[in-house]
Amino acid sequence: MIPSSVCIDTIALGGTLDAKLAAITEAGCKSVMVWGNDLMSDPGGVKVAARKIRESGLAVAGFQLLRNIEAVERHLVDYKIDLARSLFSMMEAVGTDLLLVSSGASARGVRDIPTVGARLRMLADLGEAIGARIAYEALSWGGFIDTWELAHQAVVAADHPRVGLVIDSFHSFARHQPVEPLKKIPVERIFMVQLSDGAFDAVTEVDDLIESARHHRIFPHDGQHAFDIRHMVETLHGMGFAGPWAIEVFNDDYRHLAPEVVMRKAVETADWLRPVIGAERA
């Protein structure tokens, strides 16, 4: 049985939404990370897809993804607002309150912490009707926000109880960030931890890092950084973080396999995590 605090992101699995949900539930997983595309691409449409997710019995730990809130151009900001409203509607349909928001990659975006914080606060206010929580994640190739330290500064600047932080093992270690400073973050401000590994040690070009992140990640217990990831998990758990721990593995090869085969790897990760995080959510 996969601990209830561990969820799998649908991005790791190939096949239809029905096949993904079946494989996840059969593996004993109790929660899932869902993408807007999971709903939009279903032949039955968004309402049917949302019903499938609700009827699967899986809790939806969070919803992916709103990108690049640091846009400067007014028309792009307006577009992000419209997109956020659409995502909030889908979130309500599947029964989750957590929206993941990633930093932007463009160097032309907003480059000051107070403005980024204000954008995060604006998103939380937009989602007030569903009690939306905004979980902000630093991409390791971000144009401005590229470390969890900077993302945390933006969360602090937002000064909103429903704005928090995502800690992602891939992005953290790709930026060679040490684990110990995580202890400075109030644990209640960490809304999610995403776990995966990848071959980024020898990467020197941004395009190669993006390629690795989006197409070649591996399960966290399988890679050369497994010791470091486990140390991160131990540190965060010791701080009182109880989940969700999201297994988020972008890998083209995995998506060409039957989803039940990939879920066996997820179960291995859960078994690897269990001695540290325990069987159930605290």
From TrEMBL:
GO MF, one annotated term: isomerase activity
InterPro entries from the UniProt entry: IolE/XylAMocC-like, Xyl_isomerase-like_sf, Xyl_isomerase-like_TIM-brl
Coiled coil regions in record: none
Lineage: superkingdom: Bacteria
Entry keyword set: Isomerase
Pfam families: AP_endonuc_2
Residue ranges of domain Xylose isomerase-like TIM barrel in the record: 22-274
Name of protein: Sugar phosphate isomerase/epimerase family protein
Species per Swiss-Prot/TrEMBL record: Derxia gummosa DSM 723
Lineage of origin: Bacteria, Pseudomonadati, Pseudomonadota, Betaproteobacteria, Burkholderiales
